[in-house]
Recover the amino acids of this structure.
């Protein structure tokens, strides 16, 4: 028998080196391919909110910017009575009158309220009142009052006086002498039509004056 011991075979050096090298790479990287997790999808931008919510937010802001107006209880009562007016019982009654004018002196006189008119309703909380007075001196006063039910909004008052005297410039609406010679002198009916116009409320006012404002044709 041979005294030689069987030769022991060890792993090739190359294999050990490769294994050692592979383990070193693992240690340096601190992770393996198996440990890697799939990347999560990118999150949407912070300011990309849904359109519906954005529109709701804007609507809410608009409501906050425009608070509801307060109304006057006294004016609400006036509105509820339309087309009736507080001075309807005074039509045709001679008494001391005061007509308010904005930016001018108020008109105080003794005379008669010939007619007044107001709309049947005021759904938006605003309406106008027309009145025609005749003074004891033969002049006529035209009044246009614009009312609002909102407490923070002021009513507006407009008024004019018609004087039938030929020497009165307002009575002729500043017409020249030549124009007056060619045409008839203006009457209070002409002046009233100039002041009020011919809107539906003005026509309601005119009808209460026995058709004096109608054009009669043949």
């Amino acid at each position: 028998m041979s005294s030689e011991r069987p030769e022991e075979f060890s792993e090739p050096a190359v294999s050990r080196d490769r294994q050692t090298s592979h383990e070193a790479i693992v240690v340096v990287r601190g992770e393996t391919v198996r440990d890697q997790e799939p990347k999560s999808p990118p999150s949407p931008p912070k300011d990309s909110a849904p359109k519906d919510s954005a529109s709701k937010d804007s609507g809410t802001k608009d409501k906050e910017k425009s608070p509801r107006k307060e109304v006057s209880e006294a004016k609400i009562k006036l509105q509820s009575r339309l087309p009736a007016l507080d001075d309807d019982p005074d039509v045709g009654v001679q008494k001391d009158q005061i007509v308010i004018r904005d930016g001018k002196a108020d008109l105080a006189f003794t005379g008669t309220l010939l007619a007044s008119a107001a709309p049947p309703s005021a759904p938006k909380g605003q309406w106008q009142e027309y009145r025609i007075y005749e003074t004891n001196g033969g002049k006529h006063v035209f009044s246009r009052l614009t009312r609002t039910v909102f407490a923070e909004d002021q009513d507006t008052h407009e008024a004019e006086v018609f004087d039938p005297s030929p020497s009165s410039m307002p009575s002729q609406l500043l017409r020249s002498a030549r124009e007056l010679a060619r045409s008839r002198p203006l009457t209070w009916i002409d002046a009233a039509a100039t002041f009020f116009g011919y809107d539906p409320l003005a026509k309601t006012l005119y009808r209460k004056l026995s058709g004096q404002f109608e054009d009669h044709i043949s």
